[in-house]
Amino acid sequence: MDDLIKYAPALFDGFMENVKLSLMCGVLSLVLGTILVSMRVSPTPVLRAAGTVYVNVVRNTPLTLVLAFSALGLSDTLGLAFSDKPSSNSFWLVVLGLSIYTAAFVCEALRSGINTVPLGQAEAARAIGLTFLQSLRLIILPQAFRAVIAPLGSVMIAMIKNTTVAIAGGYLAESAFVMKDTFDDTGVSIPIFLGLVLAFMAVTLPVGFLTGWLARRLAVAR
Amino acid sequence: MSSASVLFDAPGPRARARNALYTVAGLAAIIAILYFIYVKFDEKKQWEGRIWQPFLEPDTWTTHILPGLLGTLQAAALAAVLALVFGAVFGLARLSDHAWVRIPAGVVVEVFRAIPLLLLIFFIFYLAPSVMGGGDYAFMAVVAGLTLYNGSVLAEVVRAGVLAVPRGQSEAAYAIGLRKNQVMRMVLLPQAVTAMMPAIVSQLVVLLKDTALGYIIAYVDLLNTGFKILPAVFFGSLIPAAIVIGVIYVGLNMALSALATWLEKRSRRSRKTAARPIAPPGAAAAEGASGIGAAVD
């Protein structure tokens, strides 16, 4: 218990980094996932194929490889830089890698949502003369989003837990690294581990409840 | 019914013109991206034969890549077996009629599902030496972490699978005089296994992918030998190494995913079970959605 109290400020700072990563990746992956799903259902075979290849490749690659590649490959070898400060550079590299990874799962969740929209909706949209992009934006996606709030919640929870893998992307400030660092210092400490687990649960459980509640509230009545 | 045809049908002349425009614009964008990557690679001399050469030598494969792949597969295979056992035990315990079995099992499953896997692996990795004395516990930490996390997810799959068997099945079984464990063993489980097979295989893809977390605690897996050791031996081959081992990971996982899809189709047709295949964990898509999707991780 003493260890937990002694290292609490460092652990808290580390956990806040996880929260920051989660917020950035949450927004970026939802945007990227929506673009991807629009490609995957588009009337253009080229875009459909590109979307499918992206999802299948990214979804089947370990996140550790994605993040390690963004740090060692994109940044060190190919010279991609977001910032001159190494710590904020690796922060954005992790955001990039984790968003690219999570977007594939967002895309798949949304696609299963599109499958729940009755055919009549799209037919009616076409009948009143909407183009593909209009019917997607005005008719299909709003209903698809409401159908997959709960699965998207699961994707976001997985993403929040995945922020701990940031260590593989060379971002050495978040809580998994801080925990490892303290363990290196003082040996294993059960209270520190449990404290971090509770901190993560304090974020993921409300996300689960909130998305579950929203899913019920916003369900499309048919 | 593919999702694509929901949004459009045979296009008229104007829609055809618009689609042609989308195609050209999309193609241009993709070519631009690929060309950009090509140019950037070229600038940093990533197309030089020298750095790709090692992957044509059999030695590279036998001393680096294959042993790493073996490490990955060993960890994945052992963790898969243990996770299945863990999942079966805790999944059935959660269905128990006795609250003193059901509630603790539920707590264990929910807690291990909520812990970020890397934290769990770190914790086991650092806990093991202080409990069991010195030694290399990387393998054990990876396998134990994967087992506890994926086992908990599989416990939910098992529970959902048993609950997916229509009530009439167990009622009929009780009516002909079977006992509780006979109903479970002879009627519910055989049908549930067929229904949960695709979800189990999808979760095994997640497990196989997550073995790569071992890289962080220096377990000798494919990512470690291929992405840390190999580029250190053949200086400059980092990007080719990432591409080669990426292809191996994607190939392995896509083969497993294909197996899941095939199993799902088979179990949808199957007359051996009254239960419909259950959705993989986390991908519990809205009702009415077709296709099984993949487990979320």
From TrEMBL, chain A:
Keyword Secreted: no
Membrane topology: Multi-pass membrane protein
Compartments, as annotated in UniProt: Cell membrane
Transmembrane segments: 21-41, 61-82, 91-112, 124-141, 148-172, 192-215
SUPFAM superfamilies in the cross-refs: MetI-like
GO MF terms held by the record: transmembrane transporter activity
UniProt domain ABC transmembrane type-1: residue ranges: 15-211
Superkingdom as given in the UniProt entry: Bacteria
Keywords of the record: Amino-acid transport, Cell membrane, Membrane, Transmembrane, Transmembrane helix, Transport
One Gene Ontology biological process: amino acid transport
NCBIfam families the UniProt entry points to: HEQRo_perm_3TM
Family: Belongs to the binding-protein-dependent transport system permease family. HisMQ subfamily.
Protein name: Glutamate ABC transporter permease
Source organism per UniProt: Planobispora longispora
Organism lineage string: Bacteria, Bacillati, Actinomycetota, Actinomycetes, Streptosporangiales
Automatic annotation (TrEMBL), chain B:
Domain of life, source organism: Bacteria
UniProt-listed Gene3D superfamilies: MetI-like (1.10.3720.10)
Membrane topology label: Multi-pass membrane protein
Keywords tagged on the record: Cell membrane, Membrane, Transmembrane, Transmembrane helix, Transport
Domain annotation ABC transmembrane type-1: ranges: 69-260
Family as reported in the entry's similarity comment: Belongs to the binding-protein-dependent transport system permease family.
Subcellular localization: Cell membrane
Keyword DNA-binding belongs to the record: no
Transmembrane segments: 20-38, 65-93, 105-127, 139-165, 186-209, 229-262
Region (Disordered): 272-297
Organism: Planobispora longispora
Pfam family, one: BPD_transp_1
Low complexity bias (residue ranges): 275-297
GO biological process: amino acid transport
Keyword Transmembrane: yes
CDD domains named among the record's database cross-references: TM_PBP2
InterPro entries per the UniProt record, alphabetical: AA_ABC_transptr_permease_3TM (IPR010065), ArtM/GltK/GlnP/TcyL/YhdX-like (IPR043429), MetI-like (IPR000515), MetI-like_sf (IPR035906)
GO molecular function, one term: transmembrane transporter activity
Record protein name field: Glutamate ABC transporter permease
GO cellular component, one term: ATP-binding cassette (ABC) transporter complex
